[in-house]
């Protein structure tokens, strides 16, 4: 055999071996691609695919309060720094730090002896000038009596005028003395420092025995019953708040103060006032709620979450919040259809209802059934086994177990054959 034929036969042998090895692999790869395509198009779930157990809840209608929330700051209704109005040695403090002081209570006493002596001097001066006034009056009356006797002029007109002026001066001095006495009385009263408001006493600013002046701070009193909560809202909510106030002017809007840690309601009050301007730098307006705070739940300077109830939606559609999923095109839910398959239904939520539900404004109707648990196993068209909240799916029957075993065997055999 020539060399040419030997080379040709070798090439043919190589081609035959390649055909035997590559062609089956290409055929298998095509089958795998078709299977993947079918699975991607939702064709992988045949009639024998068992339904997915999921928790299903119907859409219900209820009255839903609409809230506006913001971070609020607790502020004292009144706060007064108490300074003495006269100077002297501080003799006594009649309050306990941190305790409530009633309006009109004597909270401090200043040594009154210096001012007492001034008051006594003013009293003595008044008596002295009253005596001079009485003498001037008697002199004038005697002179007037001499003039009227027998029609003869015993006292000149100039002397009479001088006597009248002397009496007027004496009377004016008496009036001035009386004013000095009242001033001394006021100053003497200032030696007892009176609480101007009812409030909690802070930490004292001076100790007993020190010399105090009118610039010395004795203590700060803070009124906490009632108390304010101040907060701000975006200007877009102004009409909503004003409309809520106008619906029933006799009933103020309710404001809840919520703890910032676990969001429970600390106490409730009412909206007292809306500020008369909008802050142009932040685009917000300020509001202030008033709280009785009888149990001192709120403390000045504390931060809380203020929740303002502006209206109530009658018959709002409500579902559990966990039913709402987030997608690239917005919120959606898995809606259970009549044949127990599911579809993705776009929805719009308007407000939170309590801690676990939301109100839906678009996409659902009353009594629609939505999936609340088990969504991660679903895709559009999936067959489901609807379960009530807390319900556990029934154990599979022997027939179902046999079918599943046979199916798994076929799948395993196919993989081994490949």
Automatic annotation (TrEMBL):
The alphabetical list of record keywords is: Cell inner membrane, Cell membrane, Membrane, Transport
Q: Where in the cell is it found?
A: Cell inner membrane
- The record places domain Multidrug resistance protein MdtA-like alpha-helical hairpin at 118-191
Region named Disordered: 31-53, 380-418
Residue ranges of every copy of the Multidrug resistance protein MdtA-like C-terminal permuted SH3 domain listed in the record: 317-374
Gene Ontology molecular functions: efflux transmembrane transporter activity
Quick one: signal sequence residues?
none
List each copy of the Multidrug resistance protein MdtA-like beta-barrel domain by range.
Answer: 226-311
Any one Pfam family here would be HH_MFP_RND
- Would the keyword Cell membrane turn up in this protein's UniProt record? yes
Which parts of the sequence belong to the Multidrug resistance protein MdtA-like barrel-sandwich hybrid domain?
78-217
**A single Gene Ontology CC term:** plasma membrane
Question: Sorted alphabetically, which PANTHER family does this protein's record hold?
Answer: BLL3903 PROTEIN (PTHR30469:SF36), MULTIDRUG RESISTANCE PROTEIN MDTA (PTHR30469)
Indicate the family of this protein.
Belongs to the membrane fusion protein (MFP) (TC 8.A.1) family.
Put simply, this protein is called Membrane protein
């Amino acid at each position: 055999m020539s060399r040419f034929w030997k080379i040709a036969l070798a090439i043919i042998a190589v081609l035959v071996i390649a055909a035997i090895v590559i062609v089956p692999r290409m055929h298998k790869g095509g089958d795998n691609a078709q299977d993947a395509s079918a699975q991607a198009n939702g064709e992988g779930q045949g009639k024998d695919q068992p339904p997915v157990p999921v928790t299903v809840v119907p859409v219900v209608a209820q009255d839903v309060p609409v809230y506006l929330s913001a971070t609020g700051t607790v502020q004292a209704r009144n706060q007064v720094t108490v300074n003495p109005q006269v100077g002297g040695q501080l003799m006594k403090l009649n309050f306990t730090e941190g305790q409530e002081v009633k309006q009109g209570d004597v909270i401090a006493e200043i040594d009154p002896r210096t001012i007492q002596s001034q008051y006594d001097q003013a009293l003595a001066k008044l008596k002295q000038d009253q005596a001079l006034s009485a003498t001037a009056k008697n002199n004038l009356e005697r002179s007037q009596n001499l003039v009227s006797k027998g029609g003869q002029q015993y006292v000149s007109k100039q002397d009479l005028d001088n006597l009248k002026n002397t009496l007027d001066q004496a009377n004016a001095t008496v009036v001035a003395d009386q004013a000095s006495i009242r001033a001394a009385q006021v100053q003497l009263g200032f030696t007892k420092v009176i609480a101007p408001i009812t409030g909690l006493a802070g930490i004292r600013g001076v100790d007993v025995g020190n010399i105090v002046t009118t610039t010395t701070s004795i203590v700060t009193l803070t009124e906490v019953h009632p108390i304010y909560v101040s907060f701000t809202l975006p200007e877009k909510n102004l009409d909503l708040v004003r409309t809520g106030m106008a619906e029933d002017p006799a009933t103020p809007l309710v404001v809840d103060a919520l703890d910032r840690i676990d969001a429970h309601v600390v106490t409730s009050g009412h909206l007292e006032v809306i500020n008369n301007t909008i802050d142009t730098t932040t685009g917000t307006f300020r509001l202030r709620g008033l709280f009785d705070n009888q149990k001192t739940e709120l403390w000045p300077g504390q931060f809380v979450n203020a929740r303002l109830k502006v209206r109530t939606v009658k018959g709002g559609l409500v579902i559990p919040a966990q039913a709402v999923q987030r997608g690239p095109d917005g919120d959606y839910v898995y809606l259970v259809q009549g044949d127990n398959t599911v579809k993705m239904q776009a929805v719009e939520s308007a407000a939170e209802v309590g801690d676990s539900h939301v109100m839906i404004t678009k996409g659902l109707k009353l009594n629609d059934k939505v999936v609340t648990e088990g969504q991660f196993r679903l895709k559009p068209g999936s067959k489901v086994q609807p379960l009530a909240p807390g319900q556990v799916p029934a154990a599979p029957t022997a027939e179902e177990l046999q079918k599943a075993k046979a199916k798994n065997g076929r799948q395993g055999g196919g993989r081994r054959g490949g």
